[in-house]
């Protein structure tokens, strides 16, 4: 199952211009402190979700003062956040309040972040999965999207509506954007393919968030090449690091690398790559079709030079 549309994440200043540029988003993730009504009025996305971290507190959240110090179990210095004890009754109460707060502001549901921290705090894995199940039980009408959480995905798959795969196919490291390759690429592709199996079983959508400058045609081409070769059809949203600037939905299934704005939704179109990790359902027929398309494209380019 594919993602059922592009899932966009925007943490910048709320403005008509920003929301207008995100009009093509089927899902829009915003901070819980903004008014989703304005975003929905301008952008008209299918879903507007409010950000809630499942395992951390940053101090800026409307519910931050509710967190007692004795449930802090670690510090995430890179982001200036603190890791909370997901197994504590106090945190469960805070999380319940956070979800109710988001719903009260008119959001359609929540975007639960930082599930990957259970890989570092393994003793909290079961508790984190239980929290997701609790959100579903206590808020049956809320849509739930989670960010990654591959190690507990089998446990939470029945309770979620969407999965976001952050930092795929491109990520930010050391001041620059990079595209997954080698063993790292094999690892993330295996995780995504397993997620897609679960998605077909439980009916949730799978989306990707690629970090990068959407105006960088070379990067867009590399990203689309990875998507088409290893995870064809996956919905990808590309935005600059920190997500303070609006990004674009990538359309990697087309052949002409250009930026288009159709119906108000900006879409970056990148070149399609027909090679796959292993022969898919089309087998040799698919490769033959790709060869024909490549020949037609070559003839078109030659005619254009005359």
Explain this structure.
This protein has helices at 16-21, 36-43, 89-104, 125-138, 153-156, 182-202, 217-230, 283-305, and strands at 7-9, 27-30, 47-53, 56-57, 72-76, 81-84, 109-113, 143-147, 162-166, 170-173, 176-179, 205-211, 235-239, 248-251, 258-262, 265-269. It is globular, with a radius of gyration of 20 Å. The longest helix has 23 residues, at 283-305. The chain has an 11-stranded mixed beta sheet. It folds into 2 domains: 7-278, Alpha-Beta Barrel (TIM Barrel); 279-306. The protein is α/β, with parallel strands linked by helices and 306 residues long.
The domain tally reads 2
What is the overall pLDDT average? 86
Summing up helix and strand content along with how strands pair, one would put the structural category as: alpha/beta
Alpha-carbon Rg, integer: 20 Å
CATH topology call of the largest domain = TIM Barrel
Number of helices: 8
Provide the spatial order of strands within the biggest beta sheet: 1-2-3-7-8-9-12-13-14-16-15
The number of E-state strands comes to: 16
Distance between the termini: 44 Å
CATH architecture of the largest domain: Alpha-Beta Barrel
- Fraction in helix: 25-40%
Low-confidence residue ranges = 255-266, 268-306
- Global geometry: globular
Q: Estimate the strand proportion.
A: 15-25%
Q: Main beta sheet, described?
A: 11 strands, mixed
CATH-assigned homologous superfamily of the largest domain: Aldolase class I
Q: Give the CATH class of the largest domain.
A: Alpha Beta
């Amino acid at each position: 199952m594919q993602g059922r549309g592009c899932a966009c994440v925007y943490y910048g200043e709320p403005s008509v211009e920003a929301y207008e540029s995100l009009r093509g988003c089927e899902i829009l993730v915003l901070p819980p402190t903004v008014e989703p009504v304005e975003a929905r009025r301008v952008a008209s996305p299918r879903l507007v979700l409010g950000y809630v971290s499942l395992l951390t507190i940053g101090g800026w959240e409307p519910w931050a003062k509710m967190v007692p110090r004795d449930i802090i179990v670690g510090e995430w210095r890179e982001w200036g956040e603190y890791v909370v004890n997901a197994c504590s009754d106090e945190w469960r109460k805070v999380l319940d309040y956070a979800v109710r707060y988001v719903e009260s502001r008119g959001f359609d549901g929540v975007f639960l972040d930082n599930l990957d921290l259970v890989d570092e705090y393994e003793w909290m894995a079961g508790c984190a999965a239980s929290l997701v199940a609790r959100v579903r039980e206590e808020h049956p009408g809320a849509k739930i999207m989670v960010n990654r959480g591959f190690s507990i995905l089998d446990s939470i798959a029945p309770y979620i509506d969407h999965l976001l795969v952050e930092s795929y196919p491109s990520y930010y490291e050391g001041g620059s954007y990079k595209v997954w390759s080698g063993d790292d690429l094999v690892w993330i592709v295996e995780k995504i393919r397993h997620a897609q199996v679960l998605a077909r079983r439980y009916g949730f959508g799978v989306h990707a968030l690629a970090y990068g400058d959407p105006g960088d045609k070379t990067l867009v081409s590399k990203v689309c090449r990875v998507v088409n070769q290893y995870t064809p059809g996956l919905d990808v949203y590309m935005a600059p690091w920190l997500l303070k600037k609006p990004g674009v939905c990538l359309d990697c299934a087309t052949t002409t690398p250009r930026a288009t704005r159709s119906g108000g939704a900006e879409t970056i179109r990148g070149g399609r790559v027909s090679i796959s990790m292993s022969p898919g359902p089309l087998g040799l027929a698919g490769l033959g079709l790709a060869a024909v398309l490549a020949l037609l494209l070559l003839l078109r380019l030659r005619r254009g030079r005359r």
